């Protein structure tokens, strides 16, 4: 992307944000919280052409600081899609909150040229007691649009969100997936010149996620800019023109998404061959299913930190079914260190009778990964649990992370081969005839 040939949509210089440790902010009432959220959105869109984020001159605390952002400088051109990646707590959401004026920076400044649409939290800007219909008009008004303009786009928003039946229901009764559908539809269809999207596409079914990514591609083709924060490395690589990697509030890498994602996954992803949770109430999952344990291990019992190309593996997922009559479908996505989906494998919770419901209890699903399939490198496994093979109940990224070595005692000539897989195929040579 040639920044010199494109108008600048966002320019930031030395953005920093620190929070005092040991100081708790008083809890806000519902009315105060909604008022603050709406006021922040109004501040972020008051000037349709040029907005400037200035530093907050707050006084330091004697209890110390935590630095969420440290000297972040960047430019985003009009029509560019910028991916922002990094671990949880790296400063990604803080950066977006500053750009939307929800949070003021401690130091530095940013210019935002154009109207901003933001999806940086599930249902941000929604009033829980208002219906879906009323919230569409509320959000449009906050963005400075006239009622006639909102009405012109209303049917398209509702059609995209696929919540026609619940349009006149208070959004506090929506599921997280319904919330996300409507919030994204509103943010994307109000024709913002800059769209900020935080990691919210993990909620909802895979078909709607693809629909959202397609919409963002369309927005970029219309010369509007997108900042896309995500842990979905495949989506970052396919959607974004450029990527930055944030770590401890600083930009540590910037460039082509493939290169930045590769650096991030090689250096930032720590192998996790086993995780467990003792109590369902503390475990990841949903109201109906909770994880108990996830692990990957060699079939022969050899050490988990010495997995090689020749090691056959078992992936085990244990989970509590909390309600009788459930029908779940578990899917594993195995992803390379470049963020490429190597393969996807699925299984019903009861392969011998996949349509029979499960009783309440603790269950284990086991997958076998044959030797000489995966290439050397770091691999991540994502778990998706769907109800009745359709709706994703929940997903858990990096449920196990493991490294495949060339061999237990690497030889000097060995090195990483290109490609996602490295199968050992049957091979033979035979002489067909002698020389003429």
- The helix/strand class is alpha+beta
Strand order of the largest sheet: 6-7-8-4-9-10
Characterize the overall form: globular
Strand content: 25-35%
Radius of gyration: 24 Å
Query: For the report, how would you describe the main beta sheet?
Result: 6 strands, mixed
SSE topology string = EHEEEHEEHHHEHEHEEHEEEEEEEE
Helix content: 10-25%
Separation of the first and last Cα atoms: 59 Å
User: Tally of extended strands?
Assistant: 18
Unreliable stretches: 1-5, 23-31, 42-50
For the residues shown, what is the average pLDDT? 80
Number of helices: 8
Structure commentary:
36% of the residues are buried. The protein is of the alpha+beta class and 436 residues long. The N and C termini lie far apart (59 Å). Helix content is 23%, strand content 31%. It contains eight helices and 18 strands. The strands form four sheets. A six-stranded mixed sheet has the order 6-7-8-4-9-10, with helices on both faces.
Entry summary:
By secondary structure, the chain is an alpha+beta fold. It has 8 helices and 18 strands. α6 (about 205-220) links the parallel β7 and β8.
List keywords for this structure.
436 residues; alpha+beta; six-stranded mixed beta sheet; four-stranded antiparallel beta sheet; 8 helices; 18 strands
